[in-house]
């Protein structure tokens, strides 16, 4: 697996060479003549592959060379397909076939190298290849990670600020304040404002900044993106979820009219603020507008679009205004460019100032172009020659706002990528516009396709994350949901980047996207990777014009009664079905014949079972069923000896799971009363597991529950002493407790321990040695000062959730001193807690705090009846949630506690607004009597 590498530059050549080497091995007993032919083919293709890799670094190729390269890549794919087919069959049925097959292809290689003057062309390319080698050195295109190190790429700490922090945005203040004045003008009638401008000007960023500034003034709010091919039902459902501030996914079966009526009914008497981002056609706007009821409550709608006529159409006749977004000024452009590379203009070397000014001028004030170019230049040294070379390559600039010029700038960053990253970037054109691409799913698909190659001893998954992070660092993809550990868990592709990579992917016949029915597809091409978006109602696949039998990847979004049959795709490595409730189990009946399948993801709640023969997919590495309704897996699953990722949605743990020794992640598995003790013991043998997420349903009423809990605890102890990094256990209602404190070996590698249902009588010794732990959720008999002292010493802890169980134990105040919890950012403290006290300098990084307090007991601990929790010492606090148990307290005491906390937060730099939740209000004491009600 480590040697296989597939890329847009060389096609399947590297993978093919590995398989030719395997055919020459002892396992395949071939005749000497056949071996000589295979050896010749391998040597010849090795030389050709070396040339392909050199050509991949050349920005301009003549037509004849392009045609030669295309033929070689297509041939490599075809040869590999045939080898795969023959190697899959029993040897006695393949010998003659292989002999004939290789004789044909040996001759084809000979003809190709000398055909139509290509040999002469190769000679003519030699001088240019030498020049390309020097150019690669100047541009550092061949730079790789030092093989002597094991450093992983991390996200550039400067980049997220450009997307998230308002203080780091440049040139935003004036247009944002102007836009806010238009929105907040006191007019009671509904008002629609459109922002219009070229892609890459920052329309979405501006809308988001205005939204963040004033959304708190409205009763309800929503921010949604429409895109070119909108799923209007999904958009309406997202708006409904956001304005109601609750999950409305259960309305999935409702039609658009039901969703529109639900929205109109909810918004009738409310002042709302809704941003409709990236509108491309008036019909989509008209449908959405039907749901946004006109009222006299001062509601506002903000629309962004690239098209002037649509901007005007959205505004009329709703007292609206079109705001035309202009490019950045020269001063703001310079500020943005220098901040992205050096931190400030003052830090720019003097020898680069004039070159930088020229680069900025050619970007024409487009923030996207400036950020893209800045990210490119940040990878260069301070040598003036490198900067001049890049500057001279940009072209004539964007003075006339020509999209072609913008594409040239973006192409420059694309061309500067190593070819393995070009491949990974182009692969993102498999996803629809505005799609939120999950990082884990993407890296697994890259691995299944053979795009990721291990370096420096890292695992494939970690290497894939490096690729993902480097694309973020180069501003070619936009990070989403950056976690506490600094890792983005998803990304989006900017429209202009998507346009670029789609055009290049189609040109190279790397991907055939069919999301846009107007796109011209080359009918004579063999499809290598196919993406179909059936959510666009006009999408039509012409089966007669395209050849699918050689396709390696198929992604289907949505559903159609005329969906392509997967039986047409015999060479598939990747199958991703993200469909609706209409997809039927019978559609999957031919999956078991896709013997080369490495990655299978099914995201359709209508799917309830897999074919019984699924175990025949012997190359399968990823099986993702999390968005299905499959509760029972076929018994043959355990025959998938190469499976690395098994992701399910509550499926029962199977007997024989110990056969799956390659498993690194097992998520969503459930352990019910029907589960056998043997399967629990086998779980402990999966010593390659890095992630385990399970739900425990063994009933506490069972007479043999202790046997089950002891076996599970023992198996988990083996896993955490091996390679386990992430462990999550959810206990079902009435389930038996699991004695995790019985572990004997310290779980040194654990980074996440999420076990809210497992009660610790005391903090075990092994927990003090968890130096890598950054997320912890546990339940204790009672949270004490000693527990805080122990956990406060964990050096990497960023997220802590503590739950106290005992309600009848005497409670004390919990004190946080400044020497503990130095890195903690999120803290949730639940249960019968009397109160807390934060000393000066305590928990310096804390951003989010949630706590449950008993009002009557908290009040009695403070002098002069004035509650002081020390919250005003939490300088980094941004979010505060307080659950107040009102039992036994007077209303006045509850109000005093809330007022004191509110006063304390007003003293903080971030001025967080505390959210209060009153529990047990029926227990409030008034005039000596308990008053019922509330709750």
Automatic annotation (TrEMBL):
InterPro entries: Apaf_helical, Disease_R_plants, LRR_dom_sf, LRR_R13L4/SHOC2-like, NB-ARC, P-loop_NTPase, RX-like_CC, Rx_N. The keyword NAD does not apply. The keyword Coiled coil applies. GO terms for molecular function: ADP binding. Residues 12-95 form the Disease resistance N-terminal domain. Residues 550-913 form the Disease resistance R13L4/SHOC-2-like LRR domain. GO terms for biological process: defense response to bacterium; innate immune response-activating signaling pathway; plant-type hypersensitive response. Residues 179-344 form the NB-ARC domain. Keywords: Coiled coil, Leucine-rich repeat, Nucleotide-binding, Plant defense, Repeat. CDD domains: RX-CC_like. PANTHER family: DISEASE RESISTANCE PROTEIN RP, OS08G0412100 PROTEIN. Belongs to the disease resistance NB-LRR family. This is Putative disease resistance RPP13-like protein 3.
